[in-house]
Structure of Multidrug transporter subunit MdtD:
Amino acid sequence: MLWVVAVGFFMQTLDSTIVNTALPSMARSLGESPLRMQSVVIAYSLTMAVIIPASGWLADRFGTRTVFQAAIGLFVAGSLLCAYAPTLNFLVGARVVQGVGGAMLLPVGRLSVLRTFPREQYLQALSFVAIPGMIGPLIGPTLGGWLTQALSWHWIFLINVPVGLLGALATVRYMPNAKLSGIGRFDIAGYLLLAVAMLALSFSLDGLAGLGFQHATVLLLLIASMAALTAYGLHANRRKQPLFPLRLFRIHSFSVGLLGNLFARIGNGSMPFLIPLTLQVSLGYSPFDAGLMMLPVTAAGMASKRLATRLIQHHGYRRVLVSNTFVVGLVMAAFALITPQLPLWLLIPLLAVFGMVNSIQFTAMNTVTLKDLSGAGASSGNSMLSMVQMLSMSLAVTSAGALLATFQHRFGGDTAAVLPAFHATFVCMGLITCASAWIFMQLGRQEVAPALPVRHGEKEV
């Protein structure tokens, strides 16, 4: 069963990064501009953010095996549709189907492990299935670049089909169909309010640049998003068993960590989208070479895991998060120095430094958010964190795409304006990240971690 869940983790994390290096090739094939391809990434991550809150209840109601099998089926079907997409709009719709399946693979697989193994074996079991989840982002950009260059971009989706079919067959044989009896009714009203809030916010940010909305439409979408979020707060305060109880926000570390995750990731979450696009569109890198350039980011990130633990144990969450957030933002802004004349011996260390400080950021943000949760609040808090992480990924790419389009138009709109537009976007996204450090300043000065909790299986993008 562990291998089955590990395959699901691998498919989901691989597909979150494998697309980025193929975007320029997709654009040429579909007759689109490479700077307008962010919708391919947004559709997947935003769909995951919307579906994740319902995944736990579905597994409790219909059984982990049933839901996990359905998730693999949807993921494979979405992959096939993506591979044969004739237009950008069709591809975006197929990514939505793929995102519905991907949203259930991670939480339902983790839940199945939790209900199968006793508490004393749970940590080891989840550590095992988390390893393929870390390998996916490591090889995703390079594999995506190689497949795009050697075959075609369609194969970055077709490789999911045999893996998914084997996973579906193994699920039938090895995964128990664990259910919970007597579960309450799903909070459909709260779920719909949160879904409307997330969708309206994302569409409003992409409205002017990507979707061509008028200013009035964007304003109405922003108002609708705020209204839906406010309505959810009133609804959750009145309901006995809301989707996400508001009492979680009485835990100070959770509130600060969740908001910090949202706004800090809007900045640094844009980098896996921006870096391969810059290398290919402005510097003339091939898809495979652009994918190889992402290896220093992921390798340095994995190597710095223990460093993050030591830093937090010695200096506390507040000092580490405030200072590291500033450093992440400054390193992001430093990518504005990228030019065709920049030597590799300077570019590769810059990528590695970004991977290191970004990994420290993710580790610290995730642990400070979850460290004070217990009992029933741990499950709801973890689901809310997963939802916010995927939402912030969507908002990050949406914001970066909107800024790219705006700066390119302001700098002249021709090919010569592309690299300055990337430079300005890197600076803006870095400043957004630096500004989010103010959120972490709200942590207590005595917020230390003498024994840092280890959260295995958390997805880091």
Q: What stands out?
A: The domain at 245-461 is CATH 1.20.1250.20 (Growth Hormone; Chain: A;). Confidence is low (pLDDT under 50) at residues 450-461.
